[in-house]
UniProtKB/TrEMBL annotation:
Swiss-Prot/TrEMBL cofactor(s): Zn(2+)
Protein known as: Succinylglutamate desuccinylase/Aspartoacylase catalytic domain-containing protein
Keywords (A to Z) from UniProt: Hydrolase, Metal-binding, Zinc
Domain Succinylglutamate desuccinylase/Aspartoacylase catalytic: 33-201
Entries under SUPFAM superfamilies matching the protein: Zn-dependent exopeptidases
Cited PANTHER family: BLL3975 PROTEIN
Gene3D superfamilies tied to this protein: Zn peptidases
InterPro entries with a match to the protein in the record: AstE_AspA_cat (IPR055438), N-alpha-Ac-DABA_deacetylase (IPR053138)
Top-rank lineage group of the source organism: Bacteria
Length: 332
């Protein structure tokens, strides 16, 4: 029978000057197994994912949930108070798991959250969104391709993740995990995130109704990142609306000197039929994942910017992935 969730919280005491704890709120649906946690609000300048979790919770109150589903709309209140990617203690929370009980607030927060999840669930779905100026659309896979693909609406990037990420450490601890990236810039519709998360809950056995979305999902096994190396204005002939669609080959964006108008650098998608796959942009996750390949089709734009936008050396401007295979969308 549909029901309101049980509400509780994870406290991190003793880390504020007024001695009030940082508090992570939890909405709990159902009981027993399987047990899945869907979390959002990892990064303080990405509110869209948080709002999507509140909408997902509303949708779950209309359904009969099997097993246990935990919704944690905002797992990093410390970062959201500052509204920045890096927390006030100058670290990025999603590089600090499983955390430690002492030291930086972010490390203590990671420790308390990770311990609570490890005790209660066997699957973690970490939902990220873009920012007001950057759009994203893909999933990180952590070794369970069916789980990652069960979202159904976005391509899945395989073989690339970073130590200290919540999902990387959850996988190491024996849980299933995946990270979803969606929306941002002018792509503020939460429907994709909500429907995709409902699909994942269907795959996990929590819901009995029929999955939505496409029958097949693209697998991205070659990925290139484009970082600015100059200060200036990022310009392009298109904006964030191209994220999730094929792009290139050729120039997809450039940095303009705002004083002189000079074009300082260009971001170029590799030509079809010419070997690529190594060197700058392909080396983000180290040499072990780099391998030469010959593109047979344009890549999918995974990350894109609203333009024009000011950038600095090191700003991620674009991210593109080449489809190596597809997988039938899991429909358990």
């Amino acid at each position: 029978m549909p029901a309101e969730p049980r509400r509780w919280h994870i406290d991190l005491p003793g880390t504020r000057v007024d001695e009030f704890p940082w508090r992570i709120h939890v909405l709990e649906f159902g009981s027993g197994g399987p047990a899945t946690a869907i979390v959002a609000g990892m990064i303080g300048d990405k509110p869209l994912g948080v709002l999507a979790m509140h909408e997902l919770a509303k949708r779950l109150t209309e359904r009969s949930v099997k097993g246990t589903v935990l919704i944690l709309p905002i797992i990093n209140p410390f970062g959201f108070q500052a509204a920045t990617r890096h927390n006030p203690d100058l670290v990025e929370l999603n590089r600090r798991f499983p955390g430690t009980p002492h030291g930086a607030v972010s490390d203590q927060l990671a420790h308390a959250l990770f311990a609570a999840l490890k005790e209660r669930v066997d699957c973690v779905i970490d939902v990220h969104s873009g920012t007001p100026v950057r759009a994203t659309e893909f999933a990180y896979d952590y070794g369970n391709l069916e789980l990652s693909a069960s979202f159904g609406y976005i391509p899945v990037m395989v073989g690339r993740h970073t130590p200290g990420q919540l999902c990387a450490e959850a996988t190491r601890a024996g849980m299933q995990a995946t990270l979803i990236e969606f929306g941002g810039a002018d792509r503020n519709d939460m429907t994709l995130a909500v429907e995709g998360c409902l699909n994942m809950l269907r795959f996990r056995g929590h819901l009995d109704d029929v999955p939505t979305g496409p029958d097949r999902v693209d697998i991205l096994d070659q990925v290139k990142l484009f970082f600015a190396s100059k200060d200036g204005a990022l310009c392009s002939d298109f904006g964030a609306e191209r994220v999730g669609k094929p792009v290139g080959p050729g120039v997809i964006g450039w940095v303009t000197n705002v004083v002189t108008g000079e074009r300082l650098e260009e971001f170029v998608i590799d030509p079809i039929g010419v070997e690529t796959g190594t060197g700058p942009g392909f080396d983000r996750w180290g040499p072990s994942v780099m391998k030469p390949f010959v593109p047979k089709a344009p890549p999918i734009l995974m990350v894109g910017q609203a333009v024009p936008a000011m950038v600095r050396p090191g700003t991620l401007t674009y991210m593109a992935g080449w489809v190596g295979d597809t997988i039938a969308t899991p429909r358990r």
